[in-house]
């Protein structure tokens, strides 16, 4: 991707722009004593640059699948912060990188409903292998409770997801909790967020 591209020419997510401040408010609390953060599924990079800038004590490591990296890295270059690392390739179904220094926190936004169930299982398996003891996992996105959608808009969103990919869909919080427990992760907080989303905070 040519470095001459401007910010206005890069992929842009309005949802990321809308939710970045509410997410930051919780990350500032939950990551206050963390140092090394992996973001899984950095996408457009809007969250990466915003959180790294506003959480200057953290070493923020963006990641995504290989085909997203050119535009992601272009944004990181254009909006660089001293604590913002170059993006790395991370496919949850492939062997995960070895992280040095070790990760004491992982963040992911709006990813689990895009993944297949197999990918979600691989997501948690990988996290269990790279997150240090007492580390934090924070996940943002929509979830179902006892098999029920929390809003009609989430129901419609789920239909749209499955039209695009029948293996995707909003996940049940109970299943997510079970996958987390299998990796030694315990849900500490489940916070309601704007637009019928949630923030889940796990500790290993």
List the helices and strands and how they pair.
Elements: H1 14-30, E1 36-40, H2 46-54, E2 59-64, H3 69-78, E3 88-89, E4 103-109, H4 117-130, E5 131-141, E6 143-144, H5 152-164, E7 171-172, H6 173-182, E8 186-193, E9 197-203
Helix pairs in contact: 1-2
Sheet with the most strands: spatial strand order: 3-2-1-4-5-9-8
Mean pLDDT comes to: 96
For this structure, what is the CATH homologous superfamily? Vaccinia Virus protein VP39
Number of domains: 1
Largest sheet properties = 7 strands, mixed
CATH architecture: 3-Layer(aba) Sandwich
* Cα Rg: 16 Å
> Which fold does the CATH topology refer to?
Rossmann fold
What share of residues is helical? 25-40%
| Number of E-state strands | 9
Class derived from helix and strand content: alpha/beta
Shape: globular
Organism: Shewanella psychromarinicola
Protein name: DUF938 domain-containing protein
InterPro entries: DUF938, SAM-dependent_MTases_sf
Write structural notes for this entry.
This protein has 204 residues and is of the alpha/beta class. The protein has a single domain, classed as Vaccinia Virus protein VP39 (Rossmann fold). It contains 6 helices and 9 strands. The chain has helices at 14-30, 46-54, 69-78, 117-130, 152-164, 173-182; strands at 36-40, 59-64, 88-89, 103-109, 131-141, 143-144, 171-172, 186-193, 197-203. The chain has a 7-stranded mixed sheet with strand order 3-2-1-4-5-9-8, sandwiched between helices. Strands 6-7 form a two-stranded parallel sheet. Strand 6 (143-144), helix 5 (152-164) and strand 7 form a beta-alpha-beta unit. Helix 1 runs parallel beside helix 2 (46-54). It is globular and about 45 Å long. It starts with 13 loop residues before the first helix and ends with a strand. The model has no long low-confidence stretch (mean pLDDT 96).
């Amino acid at each position: 991707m040519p470095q001459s591209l401007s910010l206005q020419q890069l992929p842009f997510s309005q949802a990321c722009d809308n939710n970045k401040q509410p997410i930051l408010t919780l990350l500032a609390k939950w990551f206050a004593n963390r140092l090394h953060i992996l973001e899984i599924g950095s996408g457009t990079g809007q969250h990466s640059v915003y959180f790294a800038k506003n959480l200057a004590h953290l070493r923020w490591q963006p990641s995504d699948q290989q085909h997203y990296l050119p535009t992601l890295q272009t944004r990181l270059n254009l909006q660089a912060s001293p604590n913002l690392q170059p993006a790395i390739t991370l496919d949850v179904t492939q062997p995960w990188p070895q992280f040095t220094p070790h990760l004491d926190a992982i963040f992911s936004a709006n990813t689990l409903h895009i993944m297949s169930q197999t990918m979600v299982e691989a997501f948690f398996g990988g996290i269990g292998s790279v997150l240090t003891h007492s580390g934090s996992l924070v996940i943002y996105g929509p979830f179902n409770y006892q098999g029920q959608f929390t809003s009609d808009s989430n129901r419609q969103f789920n239909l749209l997801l499955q039209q695009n990919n029948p293996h995707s869909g909003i996940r049940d919080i109970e299943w997510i909790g079970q996958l987390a427990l299998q990796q030694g992760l315990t849900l500490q907080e489940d916070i309601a967020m704007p637009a019928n989303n949630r923030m889940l905070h796990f500790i290993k």
